[in-house]
Amino acid sequence: MSTPEPVIERMREDGWLDWHQAKCLRFPHLAQGAPSSPMLANLCAFRLDLRLDGLAYTLGARYSRYADDLVISGPPTLATAAARVAARVGQIAQAEGYAVNHRKTRLATQASAQRVCGVVVNQRVNMKRDEFDRLRAVLHQCGLHGPASQNREGHADFRAHLRGKLNWAGQLNPVKARRLHALWDRIDWGAT
Q: Which residues pair with 126 in a beta bridge?
């Protein structure tokens, strides 16, 4: 559906939209961020997924996609064909109505951190090491000096902010997250 004209005008007056953006909102479109968005994206990319999965299969590899991040993973010999594989992925994507941003194409061998959507996926799913270390340090300092001393970005609900990071760590690596939970338990939240 298209955005109602009074809403567009208000957004323009408030400086949220330029002329081109306002013009685009006048045409029918789907809202972003709705609970149905991932399912609609999967439906739109179904043929692309089938074709890229077939390509990966012929290479002895595996294909996966999260939103617009495409991943082909496989044996070390895949690295020697990386340029040809990237070109073929681009051809398939173009034939299906998409464009690959080749500047974002990465080759990650087992010797390097293999990241997808900011998550390390080498042997098991994990947080980036520096991200884990930073969270551990903040929790440690919160335990020593109180949480207010570490809220340098001014989060309105710093406890919820840290809890979200802690939960994220727990989803990625429950074993490592136990160490973080031990630090969390030492924090005096009455000191905020």
A: 120
